[in-house]
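Q: Structure tokens for this one, please.
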Amino acid sequence: MSERVPENRMGVMPVGRLILTMSLPMMLSMLIQALYNVVDSIFVSWISEDALTAVSLAFPFQNLLIAIAVGTSVGVNALLSRSLGEKNTAQANAAATNGLFLTVVSLLLFMLLGGLFSELFFRLQTTSEAIIGYGASYLRICSLFCAGLFLEIMLERLLQSTGRTFYTMITQSLGAITNLILDPILIFGWGPFPAMGIDGAAVATVIGQFAAAALAGLFNWRYNSDIQLQFRGFRPNWYIISRIYSVGLPSIVMNSIGSAMTFALNQILGAFTSTANAVLGIYFKFQSFVFMPVFGLNNGLVPIIAYNYGAKKKKRMTDTIRLGILFASAIMLAGFLLIQFFSSQILLLFKASENMLAIGIPALKSISFAFLFVGFNIIVTSTMQSLGHGFLSMGISMIRQLLVLLPTAFFLSLTGRLELIWWAFPIAECVATLLCAVFLRSIYVRVIRPMPEEDAA
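A: Here is the predicted structure, written as tokens:
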């Protein structure tokens, strides 16, 4: 047993300060990553609107890749943190080691898929040879060199699982800043570098990911003393893997559903104009600027909830959930106001034409009403995952995206009015909020309320 486990701050530090201590570094680093997402697309938009549309159409595949990486790491995070709370160091080490094994298997799969089927993926979405050419080249590079992204996500989650979020701020910031610096250099050919166009954006992306992964590996080796990675004589532990995916699989499915939803939504919008696809891509890029701080907050909350669930500290759990909902809702309200008042300025960053402004301004303003519900939904679904009820959050995501958002978007498209389709987002989020409230109450009654009362700082 590790002697350091009982002293982990997740079980003793005052909850409000603990949330800020663990979440603020990740929120800052994710803001930097979000800034990269926006600036990267701005640089691509300077190539042409076709290039911007190509990157937008690549999003579902890239999101599927991220879904596998994040979902697996979420499962590792929850099991590892709970094991530390239970003082079960052996299981925590097994979770980390098997998590890295699953990461390697996943990245090899996506290298194969992206290398072979990138062009086919774009031909399923558009007949424009220019967009297909841009997109297939961009996606092939990102897929063949996706090892950096997979390893970065898993190694950073190992640091987060043990409360070392400051180090993840450094690694994520390094990756994003490296990307930001290399983007214009490689896209436009500054200095001795040749102009690579959209390929330069892809190369800059993967270099930043590998840099972050290397630093995260170094930090785990030097400073993460709560876990020990042992690969000599390693054999997959199927019991541990099943426990990882009992939490991680619902997360994977939820995010994969997002890829399917975006793919299908692009088909609906593309029937009107490819400019609508570009607007949707801009929305998703800018959305990350608002969502990323909430995800950073969320990443700080998950190990706190899981650790204190394992340690049977009821008050610390409920305080964490309440404060998380409050902070997330405040962030999303700020994002809503930003879009309502500055939608045209946001679009002009991407060299929007008059046609794109006419489509994009009402689109962004309509979609942003969903922000008023998103903060609550993100924290509640992550709470479900932390407590081992990931399939409930998966069910909510499936209903929201497949049974509400897509059908609503399709039926609104039948009116022939493009501006109505965007309202499918807030409608779906309202339904998700009702489901989250019902399931959260159910989990509280069955899981949290029966726990013994304990005074906690």
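A few notes: Residues 344 and 361 are 6 Å apart (CA to CA). Residues 13-448 form one domain.
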